[in-house]
Amino acid sequence: MLGRQRRRLHEAALDVLLKGGASDPALVAHHAHGAGRYDDMVAAARRGTALYLSIGSAYQALQLAELGLEESPDDSDLLAGAARAAWLAGLLDEALRYGRRWRDGADTTTYRAESLYVLVRIAWESREFDEMRAMTRHIETLIAQLPPGADQARAMTAIAQSAYLLDDLDAALLWSDRALALADEFDLPLVRLAALVEKGSTLTERPDRAAEGREILAGLVDEAEKADEWVLAARALNHLVQEPPASPVEQAERLERMRVDAERAGFESLAVSSYFQGRARLAMWAGDLAAAIAALEEGREQDRGYRRRGRWADYHGVFLAGLYLEATELDKAERVIADLVAVPDNPPTTIPGLAFHLACRRGDLARAEATLDQLLTALAAQTWRSGDQAHDLISAALELGLPQPRLDSLAGTLLDDNTWDAYRTLVDAQLAEARGRHAEALAGYLSIAEAPVIGPAIRGTIHVGAARCLLASPSASSASSGSSGSSASSAGASAQVEAATTLLAGWGGWRVAQLEQVRARLGMAPADAPPAVTGPAALTPREREVAVLISDGLTNSELARRLYISPKTAAVHVSNILRKLGVSSRTEVGDLVRRG
User: Fold this and answer.
1) 190 Cβ contact partners less than 8 Å away, ≥ 6 residues apart
2) Are 245 and 218 in contact (CB under 8 A)?
3) What is the helix, strand, coil percentage profile of the chain, to 5?
4) How high is the pLDDT of residue 309?
5) 13-50: string of b/e by CB count within 10 Å (b at 16+)?
6) Distance (Å, rounded) from C-alpha 246 to C-alpha 453?
7) By the 8 A CB rule, do 407 and 395 touch?
8) pLDDT in tens, 466-523
C-alpha cells in the first residue's frame, strides 16, 4: 500500500514538472524513476548529463548518467557522458569502464571517433600505455575506412593526441597538420581547435619551435572560450603557464584564467592540481622558494583524490619532494618519497631519481651508487629529457663527489639533442669546473647568465660557479676582463657574487650554502647579515614591490591576492620591510616610499 502511494506521488510530481517545461532534469529523472516511467527517466538523464557537463558539474553529470544506464545500459549518449564526466572528475577506473563500453557499442563512425579521442586521454592518465598503442592502431585503420570529413578529421586529432602523450613529436605534428587541413577544407571549427591544441602543445616541447607553439596556444584560447570549449581552453593555458614567463603579472593572470576555465569544465586535475603547481612555478620565477613550497603543500592538502588509481602518482608529491631537496629539507623529502613509493603507477624514473638525489644530499655514496644503476636503466627507457632534471641531479652528484666515470655516465644519459641549449651549456660548465677546466667553465657560465629560459635561482648558481672559476684561475679572469692578476679575479668574483646574492635573496638550501662559501672566501659578510644600509635602498626588488602596495593601503590579505602568495608569506614580507626601514607602522612605510 505504501509503495503504491509513494509511486502515485512521484507520478503527480512528474506530471507537474513535465507540464512546466524547463524543469531540472535531475528532479525529473528522480520522480520518473520513482514512478516507474523509465522512458521519461532515460530522456531526462540524457538531457541532464549534457546540461551538467556544459556547466562543469562533472559529479552530478556522472550520477545522472549512471541512473539512466541502469535502465538503458547500452545508450551511447549516456555512456559518452559517463566516460567524460568520470574523466573530468578524476575517477579513472570508472572513466575507462564507461569509455570502453561506449567504444564497443558505438553504432556510428562519429561515436567511434569521439570515443577513441576521449579514451586515448583516459588510458594515458591511467598509464594503460599498451591499450593506448592498440587504440592508436585501431584509429589508423578507422581513418583508412572513413571518407574525408568530420569523422576522419576527429580521428586524426585522436592520433595526434596519442602521439604527443607518448612523446612521438614527429607523428603528433604530422597528424595534427592533417587534421587541420581537413578542418579547413570542411569548415570544422571545433576539430580545428582540438588539432591546434595538439600542435601547439607539441611545438612547445621543441626548443627550436617553442615560441611558435606558445603563439598557437595563446591565439586559440579566446576562440575556445567563446565556443564553450573549456577543456581545450584550460589545456592550452596549462601549457602556457608552464613556460618561462615574459611577464610575471601576465603569467599570474593566465594561471587564474586556467583555473576558472578548468572549473567551468569540471576538470578537477587542472582546477586543483595544476593550479597549485602553477602557483609554485610563479613563486619560483619570483625567486621565492618558501612560497613555492607553501603552494604545493596547500595543493597537496586540497587534492583529496591524489591516491586514486591511475592518477599520475601523488600529483603534487614529486614536485614537492624536489623542492624539499632544493631547500635541503631532507627529512621532509624522505617522508614524501616514502609516500610516493606506496602509490602505484609512478613514472619509472620518479623513485630512483628522487632516491638518488636524496642519497647525494645526505652524503651516502654507497646508497647513491646503488640507486644510480636503477636510475640509468629507467632513463634509458624514457623518451624525453629535462634540462632542470639534468642540472639538479648533476649538482647533487657533484656535491657528493660521485666518481668521474659514474658522473660521465649519468650526464651522458641525462642529456640529448632535444635538451634546451642553455641547460646543456650549464651542465657542461659544471662538469668542466669539476675537472679543473676553469676557463672553459667560466666561458660557459657567462654565456648563459642571462638566459631567459633559466629561472632566477639557477641563474644565481651560475653566477656562483663563475665566481668560483674566477677565484680558482686568475688566467680565466684575465681572459674574460682584459686585466691580470689576483685583484682582477677577486673583483670579478665579487661582482658575480653580488649578482648571485640578489637572485638568491628569497631562496635557501644548497644554492645559498654554496653562495655563502664563496662570500666567505672573499671576506664578504653573510648574505643574511643585517643590511649595511637602511631606507628603501635596503629592500630587495620583491620587498620594494610589496612596500609600494603597502603605501597604497593594501592589507596582508589583499597583498596575498594581488601577488599570488599566501597571507603568511605576505606577513613575512611586511615584517622584513618594517625592520629594514626601521619603522613600526605601515603608514611610515608609505611616507618613506613616497619620499624615496
Assistant:
1) 227, 229
2) no
3) 75, 0, 25
4) 41
5) bbeebeeeeebebbebbbbbbbbebeebbbbbbbbbbb
6) 10
7) no
8) 999 999 876 544 444 444 555 667 888 999 999 999 999 999 999 999 999 999 888 8
First-to-last C-alpha distance (Å) of the chain: 85
| DSSP string computed for 63-77 | HHHHHHHHH-TT-HH
- Residues 104-147: pLDDT tens digits? 998 888 888 889 989 999 998 888 889 999 999 999 999 998 99
Percent of the chain scoring above 70 in pLDDT: 92
pLDDT in the model for residue 488:
65
Cα separation of 64 and 70, whole Å? 10
Kindly give, in sequence order, each residue whose CB lies less than 8 Å from that of residue 213, ignoring residues fewer than 6 positions away.
199, 200, 201, 202, 203, 204, 205, 206, 239
Distance CA 84, CA 58 (A): 8
Pairwise CA distance, residues 282 & 181, whole Å: 37
- Kindly state the cell numbers that stand for 23: 524543469
pLDDT for res 74: 94
Place of cell 644548497: 510
Q: What is the pLDDT of residues 49-83, one digit of tens each?
A: 999 998 889 999 999 999 999 999 999 999 999 99
Predicted pLDDT at 444: 97
Which residues have C-beta within 8 Å of that of residue 464, sequence separation ≥ 6?
Answer: 496, 497, 500, 511, 514, 515, 518
Residue the block writes with cell 622558494? 289
